[in-house]
Amino acid sequence: MSFEVEKTVSLRNYNALALDATAEYFCRLCSLDDVHQALAFARANKLTITALGGGSNVVLKNTLHGLVALVELRGIRHRCVGDDVYVTIGAGEDWSSLVALSLRNHWYGLENLALIPGSVGAAPIQNIGAYGVELCDFFVSLQAIHTATGERREMDAKDCEFGYRESIFKRRERNNYLITEVCIKLSTQPNNRWQYPALRDALEAKLGDASAAQITPQLIAKTVADIRRAKLPDPARLPNAGSFFKNPLLDEQQLARLMVDEPQIPVYPAYNNLSKVPAAWLIERCGLRGYRAGEVGVHERQALVLINYGSGSAAQLLALCEHIQSAVEQRFGVCLEVEPRIYGSF
Ligand SMILES: Cc1cc2nc3c(=O)[nH]c(=O)nc-3n(C[C@H](O)[C@H](O)[C@H](O)COP(=O)(O)OP(=O)(O)OC[C@H]3O[C@@H](n4cnc5c(N)ncnc54)[C@H](O)[C@@H]3O)c2cc1C
Questions:
Q1: Closest CA to ligand 1's atom 12
Q2: Nearest CA to ligand 1 atom 6
Q3: Residues sharing a CB contact under 8 Å with residue 156, sequence separation 6 or more, in sequence order
Q4: How do residues 321-340 score in pLDDT, each as one tens digit?
Q5: Which one is the CATH code of 240-343: 3.40.50.300, 3.20.20.30, 3.40.640.10, 3.90.78.10?
Q6: Which fold would CATH assign to domain 76-187?
Q7: Could you tell me the pTM of the whole model?
Q8: Half-sphere exposure (CA, 13 Å, Cβ side) for 91?
Q9: Which of 59, 125, 307, 338 to probe ligand 1 with, by most ligand atoms within 8 A of CB?
Q10: pLDDT in tens, 189-236
């Protein structure tokens, strides 16, 4: 398909929240040549570039000015070094399909990250994670192109400054790079990680008493997929962007204050002596699970997920988000940070 820039394109089918936003300009990037043509077009017309993958972690307001570039760069290659398998993946490949392919090939490591929607190129943006595992556990490097200068850069894990749902691409280098390729290191030897409480409980329910000998990477992936299907609404049927808020990271003092009134709250160790508490738990304690405000609402089974029931707008969704944030702040003194990236203007 030859490179083409379209004007005034609806993004409704390109975001998991099914928000009716419009891109001023829109193009698809299927090759590196397309990337360079898009950069040249943006430079010539003084436009910003917004990369879009599966649209599963964005909130799009009415209008996205500039050029929205749908990343569709494909290709997967691998190289074995002893037990290690270095897999290099085009940014437009589907993450879930990559996990399935890796398991079919007996390349282990990604099983806890089964069924996370979206593209491989977006995975480093927030260092995707689930069930005790994060992208940074396997990450080797990525190739990126600076959208303003066209400079090509290889970045390793240190350059990416990964954290909990964080990276340099959400902070200092926000919107500055287009990721074209990601390289991860998997292994032909299973290294099962199943101690994350929800996963361990589900395995125990399946196996009786989860003993390490019975647990395989395939079983972990299947169990993770089962939990996710039971817990999370499918965006194709009930538009949503997964977790709308990050789980707050609290220091010792903040945690001690919270535990005075809420001694039952689950607490997980996190980075730098901080503790992670579930945002869903806080929202639920405010009585907001299942809360609905017109065409948007909080999912009835998972309080971390905000839903567009059909014709909800970004304005309604962000008003609901503020309502939840202020309820949690007032009751617990804890600030909830929004996880998806917000783009565009009203
Ligand atoms: C039902 C559901 C469940 C989810 N569960 C999880 C989960 O368990 N764990 C988790 O971590 N996340 C989860 N998410 C969030 C989402 O799946 C991830 O953040 C995913 O990586 C987003 O991929 P995407 O291609 O859809 O990104 P998009 O939504 O298209 O983009 C997200 C951000 O990445 C940028 N971006 C996308 N592609 C590129 C690129 N090639 N170069 C530069 N920037 C780029 C965009 O500009 C944007 O800022 C879930 C989402 C849904 C809807």
A1: 128
A2: 116
A3: 140, 141
A4: 999 999 999 999 999 999 99
A5: 3.90.78.10
A6: 3.30.465
A7: 0.95
A8: 28
A9: 125
A10: 999 999 998 999 999 998 886 577 789 999 999 999 999 999 999 999
